Records
---
Amino acid sequence: MRFSAFLASLVFLVNVVVSSPAEDAPAEPEILVVASWPESNPFGHVVNGEKNLLLLNIENKSDKNVTLLNMAGSIHHAESNALIKNLTTAPYGITLIQGVKLQLPYTFYSEFKPGDLRLNIWMEHESEGEKYSVSAYDSIITIVEPEVSIFDFKMITTYLMVLAIFGGVGYITFLSFVPQSKKAKRADVSAPVGTATATGASGYQDEWIPDHHIRKSKAKKSGALSSGDELSGAETSGGEGRKRKAKK
């Protein structure tokens, strides 16, 4: 009798010790999170080099307000589920009011080899000093390369810039290594300075005649004039003599 009472007391104490921590620990708030792709991406393709968007629809179904801390994600191998890379963590720090639905965006960039990979997105929130993590998306995605279009403005601008750079380098190389032909410059003939003296009917200029020719011509002219003067002087003296004889 005493043994059965002792055994019952021992079982009661064990139940109290085991159940006490569970009763003291706060219950995790019920937060519903569903991630979806936007209408512009119905097939859920993740494009390399572009901003990929996921919309997270969040609903706080608990009877208390919780704080949304951040959203994060990771990329894994599709078969082995081995981690490839952690994605960007987007901090929020906003309050999720009880019973209120909310839609928030999560964006990330992809630089992976095209193919199938596993994407995992989760949300972290806090309630009464305790942090919790809720999975928002865990599924296989397809990595694709961006579509190439000849009318893409960015690509056209890039091509023009590359062509301009190569053209400038080629022109500088051409000027540096190809010899350039030098054009002979014609010397400008300066007009003679000074007044031109025209003599005779032909009107030639003395400046263009050598000095020794000018001296010879002047000597001849002076000799002719002196002989003429002598003749005229003799004639004058003869005339005067005749007048004197006539007076006598």
Note: Residues 15 and 197 are 144 Å apart (CA to CA).
---
Amino acid sequence: MFIYKSFIATLLFAASIFSQSTSYAVVKPNEGQSVHVLPYPNAIYKIIVRGNQTANQFTIVEGIVYMNEGAGNHFHMREDETFFIINGTLQFYVNGDQFCAQAGTTVYIPRNASQSVRNLNSKPVHIQILFAPSGIENYLEKITPVFDTQPVNYTIANETAALYGIVNLPVVDWKDIGCIMNGTNQLKLSSFFLIFLVIVKAFL
């Protein structure tokens, strides 16, 4: 069962655990370690906050999901995930349920829940993902050279994932639930408004 939570609440909860330490981390724009997280040539994300900066409580990863891309069906045995959609719209699959997640949406997925995500829109979708506890960065560093090599050797990719408690599952049977419309309504409205202004100006 998926649960919508406030991303800020999740961070505050993690911070409350981490508050026993006086250490803190500041990551500025364009900082972080680049990693190749998915078997697409441009799926380069960044590790923003690592476990050694949070007393191993959580890791934060940031990236862009391009059109017709996204994580395949899988589940994590070791960590929970919290997604925050910064812009755009993604379609999620969690334990058999499918739903749209627009900009501003937060999605919490517990460990052992099957999950997948895809971008149906032409606009790249900017996301941040919080993994708790930390440790996912070790997998991301290990899988990077595997995904850097094209074509991807999926046998090695699956074996590497299994070493870090990630189990890849059969491809999702995606349904058309209107996520592409949700992501393009604003663009259509803006285009209509511009056309309207052009027509009005032509008659003035």
Note: The longest helix spans residues 179-203.
